[in-house]
Every structure is written in structure tokens, then in C-alpha cells.
Amino acid sequence: MRYGKTVGLVAVTIVFVTACTGRGAHDDATGRVDRPIYYGTPDNNSAVVAITNGPGTGFFCSGTLITPNVVLTAAHCLEGMNTSTIQIMFGDSVGSGTYVQTTEAIMHPAYDSYSITNDIALIRLDGSAPANVAPIPALPPGLALAVADEGSTIDISGFGQTETSSSGDKLHVSVTLTKVCPGPNGCSFGSGWAVPGSIGYPRTPGGTCYGDSGGPAFLARAGQQYVVGVTSYGDQGCTVWGVSTKVDAFATFINGFIGSVIPEDCGAPGDEDGDGLADCADPECALHPDCLGPDACEQALPLGCGAQVNATTVGAESQFVDYSCLSDSTENGPELAYELTAPAGATVTASLTIGGNGDLDLFLVPTDGGASCSPSACLQGSYNSGTSPESLSFTMPAAGAFLVVDTWEVASPFTLSLSCNGNTQTPDENCTNMNDDDGDGAVDCADPDCAAHPDCAPTQEHCSNQVDDDGDGAADCADPDCATHPDCAPGQPPGEVCNNGMDDDGDGAVDCADSDCAAHPDCAPDPPPGEVCNNGMDDDGDLIVDCYDPDCANHPACNAAAPNMDPVSGGQACNQSGSSPPPALPLLILVWLVAGRAYRGRVARGPSGVGSGRS
To answer: Distance between CA atoms of 1 and 384, rounded to whole angstroms?
Structure first.
């Protein structure tokens, strides 16, 4: 589907590699002498433009639309030019595209044509680009290229001649980012030299050459394509190394021209662009790694031998872009992932058929040691053109792996099937994994195969708890499931449940107030208090205190033989042992209580014995 491609054309080389003085030899169309490039592949990225002097004049540089009305290019493209004649051509082939007039063009104020530093420029359109052209933004400082990005794949694009000597067609090639040189000093890489504020790369399998000056180098960050480089210079033969201006290093220059404020730095606290939204709350940060949700592998469903799934990439996650087993291009659409459950060492074949008019690709990627996977360590890929089926055959890694269905063009439905050791038998349905393992369209307990599974058995009605346990709208004896329950026998009124706060038998008495509960343990009356025999109190209410209460006859604090005492009158005598009676205070209290009771109940009589009234 995609193969290595060579793009051409850089207008200036540094002085120690055959520099061109001034504008070099002219032809009547472009003002450049083009040299052929080889193995180019057509590029349909509409944001990549040709910089021309109008229809019929050919082109002299390339550029990128970074806002609806601003084109980014190289400063050396504008050197010595009458910028009022510049027109931007939108299209894949010079002469057949749409031309747009410009109103302004500026080179970076610190551009040095001798050292080729600060080789960056901007052109403003007279109006906006065609409606079908989507700008690709310049990489902001918050996502700046760093040494850690060395080894990444970048895609370089521009217009130029081919090995057949045709010209004016847009071509692109993917190369490895070899050197990030932020400055303040230059950097060597292989036999090449990168000035401060630039990036370097080999021209393998192809690369830029004369005429591709100002064209972009693209890199994806979290699913969003950015312009990270502007083609600047390289070796004279256009076969060994090339250098592009490092775009994120010139944010102030770019933002000053396009009229925007400092972009939001999504990785640092604060509202840098002053829109009242900081970091991940700012829409500019929607695709920043710190602001993304779980990726496709972190949300992957299991996929086992013999399984078949029908799904779609429409609306799926779109975070995976670069796969190491796809060296010449990137996957910019949404993707779905499946975690393989095939046994280690099994011979596995994965087959993908595509519905609709989409172009989907299939990748085998290892785990990342955690919950996700590593597209950058891709094990195998299948990427045929258009709707052609994709297929992978492999030995199941012992450490586990994922299959990723990614969108090259147009998200679409698909069918993915997995066979192991030639096994195409329909697998059993796993009743608890939220997956349609046997491909019959029914998942888990909705599949008849799971009818006897414990997790799928219907809930039984409990016939005496006043709850509709099985959800059929009938509770307890009103549920036919309880017809044979003892509490629900025909003609048998329901019994009172003695501790549920309800009048179960409908007699108007609840729980212990119902005579049916008389013998229930929770309804037994509290036993009367017993006499405490040594606390000076009448605990059981019989007006006899402590050892004078017969209940205390056998208490250790009381003598085995009760005192010879009249508890009412308070008269006392020695007990049989001759010991002294208990202390007098309790006795006096008792006498007072008894006497008071007797007094309050007595009627006074006169001498004749006739009652004379109440005292």
C-alpha cells in the first residue's frame, strides 16, 4: 500500500558542500535548475503547497498551510524575490491546482544566508485557502522536539522531478529523525552538520533535494500531525543527509505573524495563552499525551482461538500513529485493539475483512509491560491497498500480544477472525467476559449457551421476606414460584413475622403486639428484678430490704438463719447466734415506709367509736 519514496529539491546547501550563490542558473519558469530525484511516491496531503509566481510559471519552492491563511516555508526561498508576485498553488500537481494570491511574505529577521541559520519564512494569503484544505499546525513549544525523539519517523514532503524527468508532482518520503540540534551550537551527525535550531536525517530510502526547499517534515504527537521541520539544506548529491529548520524553536516569530498569543503549554501549570483555560482544560491540549484517556490497548477486549468479531473503527480511539513495522508512512485514523488469549507458541492466523470503502490495516504489537502495548516495537503488519483483506500469521509470543486494527483512510466496519494451529472450530461462549466468543451475536448470559452457567441462573424468589427477589412483579406468596412453599399453602393465612415491623397476617397487630407472637423469644416479658442483698435498697419492690427479704436467705452476706425481727414494726431481738442485727438505718427506712403507708390508710375514730372524719 505504501512504499519508500524519494522527494526532491533543496535550493541551498551549506558552503562546505557546494553552495549555490545567489539564485543560481535560471530557467524561464522557476528560477531554479532542478535535478532529478528518484523513487518518489505521490503525496495527497492537501496542506503541502507549491510556491509559485502564478499559473504557467512552474514553481520554485514548497511550503505548508499552518493556518487558514498562512503558509510556512524557508527564508532562502524568498531571498531576492519580488514577494508581491507570489501565488500559492493548492493541489497535487503544479498547473492543475488552485492558485491563491498573497499579500505579505517575510523572512526571519535573523536569517543568515551564509550560515543558513534561522532559515524560516511566512507568507500570508489574500483570503483563505480552499475550503477542502485543512491546515496542519506548527509544533508548539510545549511539544518541542527533544533528543528523546531521535529515532522517530518523520515524513518529508515537497514538489520535484522524478527519475523519469517529470516534474511538479507532490512527493513524500519517510526517514528517521537522526539529530535534534536545539543550539546554541551546531551538531554533527554521520557526515552531516546541523546548524543550531535544526534537525538532521539521512536521505534513505530517499530524501529532499533542490526544489523541495521550504517543504514540511511532519511528526505526529498523540494522533495530531504537526509541522516539525522546514526543508533547508543537505549534501550536494542529495543522497546522504538533509537538514530542516526546527519549527518549535521559532514559535515567537510564527505567532507574531499569524497574530496568535503564546500557545498553551500543556505540560506546565498555568494558562499560557490567556484564554482562561489551563492545560488539559484548554482545547489546544486535547491531543497532548498528558490529556488523553486510555488508548486502544488499554481498552482491548480479549480475542481467543477460533473467535470472530464484528466491529468498526468509527468513533474509536485515535492515538496510535507510528508503527515500527510500517516504515514509510503513518496511520492517522482511529483504531481498535484486541488482547490475544491464544496459548504461547501456538501458530496463529489473523484475518481482517473490511466493510464499506475504508482502508484498514492490521498490526501485531507486543505488550508494553503494563496494561497497554507498544506500536513502536511492532512485530508484524499487514497493510494492503484499499479494501483488500489483511492477514497475519505468527507464533503467539509467550509475553502476550495485541492485534490492532488501524485506519489508514476512512474509518470503517470490519470482521476480524483468529485461528490457531489450523483450528477454525467455533469456540465456546465465555459467559463472564463481555465478549461474543462464539460469534453468534449474543454476549455472555444473553447467549443460550450460558443458560446453565451459575452467573446466568435466574434469581430464586424467597417466599417470606416481603421482597420481589426474581423481579417478576410478584413478591413472596403472590409469586407462583412460591405455590408449594409451606407459608403459602392454600387456605393457610400468612403467619405473623414477629420482628419485622409489619402486620403480616392482617389482624391489626404488629410483631409482639400480636398474640401469635406470645411465645416468640423476642416477645417474652422481662423477668422481674431480683433483690440485691447488700445495696440497702428494695430492688424487687416487696418492701423488704436486703437480708430481711426472704429472697436473700441464702445470700453469703446474710446469715443462714434470718434475724428475729419484725420487719414492719422494727422490733428486734438477737439472732440465734447472738450476733448483732444489721445496721439500723435500713430498718428505720423500712419502718418509716411501712408506718407511713399504714397511717395514710387509717381512719381516726372518736371516743364513741364513730368515725369523726379523715385526718
So the answer is: 5
pLDDT of 468: 81
- Distances in Å between the Cα of 512 and the Cα atoms of 455, 465, 515 are 40, 18, 7
In what helix (H) or strand (E) does residue 390 lie, and over which residues does it extend? Answer: strand 390-395
* pLDDT tens by residue, 471-481: 888 887 888 88
Say if residue 256 is in the same domain as residue 269.
Answer: no
Give Cα 549 distance to the centre of its chain.
80
Q: Say if residue 182 is in the same domain as residue 133.
A: yes
- Please, how many CA atoms are within 13 Å of residue 294, restricted to the half-sphere of its CB? 10
Q: How many whole angstroms from its chain centre is CA 345?
A: 31
Alpha-carbon distance of 376 to 63, in angstroms, equals 29
Characterize the bridge pairing of strands 241-246 and 198-202. Answer: antiparallel
Q: In terms of domains, do 196 and 313 share one?
A: no
Q: Is the dihedral of CA 88, 91, 95, 98 positive or negative?
A: negative
Q: What is the dihedral of CA 99, 92, 248, 105, to 10 degrees?
A: -20
Q: How far is CA 291 from CA 281, 284, 380, 604, 606, in A?
A: 9, 10, 29, 101, 108
User: Which residues does 483 contact at the CB level (< 8 Å), separation at least 6?
Assistant: none
Mean pLDDT of the chain: 78
- Cell 406470645 identifies what position? 518
Q: Is the pTM of this model over 0.85?
A: no
Question: Which pLDDT band, with edges at 50, 70 and 90, does 491 fall under?
Answer: low
Instruction: Return the DSSP state at 610.
Output: -
CA dihedral (392, 396, 401, 405) in degrees, to 10, reads 20
pLDDT of residue 162: 59
Q: Which of 399, 420, 441 is the last residue of a domain?
A: 420
pLDDT (0 to 100) of residue 589:
39
Instruction: Provide DSSP, 440-505.
Output: SS--GGGSGGGTTSGGGSPPPPPTTSSS-TTSSS--GGGSGGGTTSGGG-TT-PPPPPTTSSS-TT
What is the rounded radius of gyration, in angstroms, for the C-alpha atoms of the chain? 47
Q: Read off the C-alpha cell for 380.
A: 508484524
Instruction: For residue 63, give the H/E element and its range.
Output: strand 61-67
Mean pLDDT for 543-553 is 85
Rounded to 10 degrees, what is the CA torsion of 501, 504, 506, 511? Answer: -40
Q: Is 544 helix (H, G, I), strand (E, B) or coil?
A: coil
| pLDDT band for position 490 (cuts 50, 70, 90) | low
The amino acid occupying position 220 is A
On whether both 83 and 174 belong to a single domain, the answer is yes
Q: Are 512 and 498 in contact (CB under 8 A)?
A: yes
In a domain, 382, yes or no: yes
Pairwise CA distance, residues 113 & 115, whole Å:
6
Tens of pLDDT, residue by residue over 115-149, are 999 999 999 999 889 988 989 999 998 889 999 88
pLDDT digits (tens, 9 = 90+) for 211-256: 688 999 999 987 789 999 999 998 887 788 999 999 999 999 998 8
Residue where a domain terminates, one of 239, 260, 281: 260
Q: In Å, how far from its chain's centre is CA 233?
A: 42
In this structure, the answer to whether residues 44 and 191 fall within a common structural domain is yes
Residues 351 and 398 in one domain: yes
Distance CA 427, CA 569 (A): 99
